[in-house]
Amino acid sequence: MKASILWCDKPSDEEAEDQIINSLCFNPDGSQLLVACGQKVLVYDTIDGALKSSLSGHAGAVHSISYSADGTRFASGGADKLVVIWTHECQGLLKYAHDYPVQCVAYHPSSHLLASCSSSDFGLWSPEQKNVIKTKLTGRITCCAWSADGQLLAFGLYNGQLIVRDKTGKERRLGYDPCALSWFVKDALKHESRAEFLLVGGANRECTIYSREGFKLGTVAVQDSWIWCCCAKPDGSAVAIGTYNGIVGLYDIKFGVVHGIHKDRYAYRDNMTDVIVHHLTTDQKVKVKCRELVRKIAVYKTILAIQTLDKILLYEAPGDVQHDMKYKATQKINKNIECSSMLVTSSQIITCQDKRLQCFNFTGEEIRVWQMDSPIRYMKLVGGPPQHEAILLGLKNGGVYQVFVNNAFPQLLAKQSSTIFCIDMNVNRTKIAVIDDTNTLYVYDVWTKELLYQEPNAHTVAWNGYFADMLAFSGEGQISIKVADFPVYKQHLQLPVRDAELLGLIVGFNGCTIYLLHLYAMSGVTVPVTDAVYRYINKKQLDNAYRLACLGESSQTWEALGHAAIEQNDYVIAKKCFSRVRDMKYCNLLSTYEEVAKRGETKPNINLGDYYAYAGRFQEAARNYQHGGAPDRAMTMFSDLRMFDQAKEYMVAGDVDQQKLLNKQAEWAMTMNEQRTAAELYLAAHDYLRAIDLAGKNKWSDLLASITSKLDKAQHDLLKRCARYFVEMKQYTYAADVYEKMGDIKSLLDMRIILNQWDEVFSLAKRYPLYHSDAYYNYGQYLAENDRFVDAQRAFYKAGRIIEARNVLQALTDNAVNETRFKDAGYYNWLLSKEYLLALSETPNDDLREQLFKKYNQCLILSELYYAYQNLYEYTTEPFVDTPSQILFNIARFIYHKLTNLKEIPPGISKFRTCYTACKIANKLNANKFSRQMIELMKDLTFTHNLGQKRTEIEQLALELRAKTFSDDSELLPLCYRCSHHSELLNPHGNECSNCGSPFVLSFLSFDVLPLVEFVLPHDINDEDAYNLLEQIPNSQLEAKPGGQTLNASTANRLIINEQFQREEKDPFLKKMTKYSANPNEYRPVVVDRSLLKAMDPSLVFVCKWPFPLRWKWYRIIVPETQIGRCRHCNKFFHNDEFELAILETGGCPFCRNKKEGDLTVGLRTKSNRLVNNPLKPNAYLLRQAVLSIFY
Predict the structure, then answer these.
(1) Which positions fall inside the IFT122 second beta-propeller domain (predicted)?
(2) pTM over 0.70
């Protein structure tokens, strides 16, 4: 640290008497210095020391002044016990008083808090509070000061104590009276960490700088009188002092740089008492706290040496971990060694003082002394083996020496005529660079002492730590880089010329980074070495170029070096270069060269041709291929480049197959997006696979057909590929032709199926039974898609797909219900029942047969319900229907009786809708009792979404019915033709007689009761035998029985009382059916034995044949005059007139929709009044009219 006076003044009053300078302070920007002199406050300009203003506001001497941190006000305190607050314009603002004279005042550094001290106490005031808080101290206060962060408040006492108040309150004894105390903040540059010191002046007549911890760092000024006050300029560049004899002085403060460097570790002093070690490569920093003044620093590898006032401290970082910066104290040399510079080696401390060079071990013992013949001006450690390190010395007389720590004799390296300013040795110790006081750089050969070259305008120099032939030197604001004997490369520094000349010092050169010391900051400057690399390449010194490029070069430079190495057949360097830039193209090429070399087949011309081809120098590549005896490579290269004319030249020379060239041309056409041309070229080159793919992907069916015609049927894979593309293009005819050519029957069948050519499909299935199932299965799908579901079902059965057939019908049923097409739903359920019946006849498993029988019955019931429900649904949803009320009434009763015997109501069928229809129509037909019963039943039912509005109508109807008789019209009551009993309209037993339990046989058009009585056969008679017995000629006793009556003209109009008895006597069946149980729950069917079968008229019997395992059903017509029709397919009965009309309208049975002529039967009356069952022909209506016209 150095202090120099800037200006000095001794103010006096009007009587020319000396005034004591009691206090000093700067305004925040440092442009003004306030001086408390006598009873006045003087304002000085800090630049030239001119007095700008003199302020009077105290009645006594002004003891202290202080400026606020924001520069808006300052305060003064004096012997008159007052504290005066002034504005920055030197106007008085306010005052407050103490009990004793005010000794000092100090503003807080970041607020308007003011500390004012009297003899025995101190107070704290701020504009925000009215009262001043005062605190007593044990001694008389002479001065006070805040720390820069405002956390500490220091007091100087008359008894010689220094008190720093914080949470603990620390004290330090000085040994003299401190009259002045001030914090000194140094923040010269942004790169420098903030440094904070304490200025103390007093009875020792000195102004001294102390560290924050209280350690003495140096002296600013020495006066003839006590230092009465002192303060630092805000920027830390100057210190003002005031003495007891009235002298005001401003001193400039300069802090010297104490540092040391070795390779990439740079150590420098911080805050005068600490050392920061900076790793220049990783930018790591670590602080070593010494807590006392640091005088010298030396660093070598991981060892750090720090010299303080009376000792040398040694630290070391772990050497086993690279870049580890955790320094730990190892040893201490308690010896005050006076020296101008210091170095440290692996085990010694080297100090220099004038001509004397001393070597100490780490215990402080002096090992060796070198006495030079001239003062030492420059010293640098160049390293070496442990305990054999070398040191370069530059003397004042121009001598340059090398000293080894284990050798007592210095070695002369060079001799200059002037003082040595800077020296350095290259990494392999073959060259030495010297700069003398003429600022000239000299480079010598160490062994021959020959001057290699010299450069002017050099201030500092450093050899590169990795490349022995490169150095850098600075001068005149520039950095110059010298490589071997190449021209110097210059780079300007981003510093003012004056600063660059003085402080832009090169202290290290590692790789491509030059380390410069500017003032207190170390910076790294990256310099390019590209020019030198290219110069080495031009000289074909590839090893030097590679080592220089390793310091840090761009990928472009590495590529250039790699290309040069390949051309010179140095494949090792070339591979390293291209690996660095990750150029896999050339790395693969060089790997190929290595494999060829391992096989002993290296041909330089071919290798060079490959390289030129990779580099785009095709003509040179072709010539090298030609010279190397491989013209085919040239042809391949030109064909790959679509340069087919050049390729043909080398094709002749190399006798290469023309087909290969055609393939190349086709590939080129592909890249030009001329795919049609490419396909034709592939076809010409007999590359059918690529031609097929191109034609198929572009859907060129004509070209693909042309290719197919050129293929032989043995080329199975190619033909299969063509067929696949035809299928993708939906050209199924072409695909079928290809599959036929291949003999692929399965694929051919698929194509015929897609084309819906079912004749060909069935022809193939007939020729190849293996595909019979697939043919009919696909045919079934086709029929189902075209709404031919019955045919589709048959096709599925032929294909053996039973489950699919049932699923089709079930899906159709569900859809029909969802779409309220209930007749269709009934029809589909009828078909399902037939399927289950067929499966029942073919299943030997009893458990499975039981399940199938249940499903059969379920589907049969659903078919009848849905068939009948269609009319009822239309009545409740449509505004007008043409179905007679009587029929709707019968349908509603039929559905209701069916639903009462079911556990669950089928989907789509509404029980409420059924009751509503029955109730409404019953009211019209005077079935009052039945209507009221329906209303009672509807109370417990849920309204559907479209019948909810009928609630009011039902309630009105209920009121109307209460006014009517509780009875039904007798004509509406169903008649049982077995017991001749009329049943109730609402029968809890369902559609059967409430008296004898005999089931009613209904017409499936009008749903009224038909005059049919069901009879059964004994167990010993099977269906076929019974049918044969029935078909025999009737017994003659039935034709003319004794005692019988004969109708003639005389008896035609006569009443015969015993007619019924006579009928029973003539027809034993009528007599047998009258025998029944009076309990309807004990229903006993009519059992017909063999004799009765022989006696029965077959024209009065309907035989409903069912397939196995169901038994046939037998019905007897009780009223022969009633004409009844029956569908032989579904075995449903109808009134003959209605049945004929329905057949004429629909063309088939209204229930099962069967249209076969032989399955539709009606009953006709003959001359003998005998009914016969005849099949109904297409002209059934005309035939019936003709017959009726004859007999009626």
Answers:
(1) 259-522
(2) no
